[in-house]
Amino acid sequence: MGERKRNPWRGDFPILGTEVKGKPLVYLDNAATTQKPQVVLDRLFEFFARENANIHRGVYYLSVQATDAYDQARARVADFLNAAMPQEIVFVRGTTEAVNLVARSFAGPRLRPGDEILVTIMEHHANFVPWQLLAEETGAVLKVAPISDAGELELDAFENLFSQRTRIAAFTHVSNSLGTINPVAEMTRMAKSRGVPVVIDGAQAVGHGPVDVQAIGCDFYAFSGHKLFGPYGAGVLYGRKELLDAMPPYQTGGDMIESVSIEKTTFREAPERFEAGTPNISGAIGLAAAIEYLEKTGWKSIRAHEEDLLAYATAKIGAVPGLRIVGTAPEKVGVVSFVIDGVHPHDVGTVLDTEGVCIRAGHHCTMPLMRRLGISGTARASLSFYNTKEDIDDLVTALGKVVSIFGNAGG
Ligand code: PLP
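# pyridoxal-5'-phosphate complex -> structure
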């Protein structure tokens, strides 16, 4: 247990001390969701135990306190993304809702038949299906940028796909299936130099370091709080203020209006215009607590540990007989996807589960990518800063069990 004990952050996450099927939990599914530190759990408890009230509408103490905490959460997220102001942060359910909001409210009204939407083949369905549907509805055309066999975006091909008709470019910062980090600043420059607005799916990027939306130059940036060590149901859409203010509401109801009469309703500016109804107050506050925790922990040490761990995991996992790593781009976060000759990824996941090792198996909501790679799915270990080399060793030992059970089924 030495190595696990030496990791300075594991003790902050109560779940990591638990056992699964009598074995220490080895949690390697951080791309699906991250575990929550005690400080986030404490903050949620504190909020419900002592501060809970609905926001905005109350003149009494508790409501004012809750409103303040919600506003502070927005400011903390703005700081984390280096947004120009807190009003550029819209709280939504998650990345999925954020992308749908931009597709429906920003892109939809701008699209005419024959216009083009540019995405990449490595998109999660959350940043693919909304654009595909919108294209079908408006008569626009979906253009899909290719990748190399290593899982790296073909940047020249991406650039060549821009045309006079390109109306929006939507791409992922980091691939959830491959771990590839895309050169989003360069991609954004390519789009903006042609006057094309940019939406970035940051779901897999934020858990590995802060993001500077102004340095990237994008118009929209989406992420999910639960992948950033925060609660479920609290996600973020960053949007440039002047764009958000010019967009029609996505949903309507309470809290987002300026005035309502029988004849006409007028709407508030962003971000309230996009937060109809009671928002996820506790979720936003919990997310802010997660960001505060990460800042105190220090992104530099988090990054250094993750890079070391990825190199170790790549070497150890890659040495398992009959196993092939899928996604070997030079710039990667801690995601190791792999296939084993003759063994279905779900069988890999099931055998690993008997050893207390949690990984994900399947298409990872990237079916077009899997088709491009000529496979139906992968097994995927995804790392975070609380993982250790011991976790990787346990995974590799369990993979040995997979290989011995299925033998040389693939020949
Ligand atoms: N985009 C990417 C790259 C993802 O990995 C995910 C989730 O795995 C999503 C979008 C969707 O996130 P959510 O389900 O939290 O909306």
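# post-check
The first helix runs from residue 2 to 6.
The domain at 41-295 is CATH 3.40.640.10 (Aspartate Aminotransferase; domain 2).
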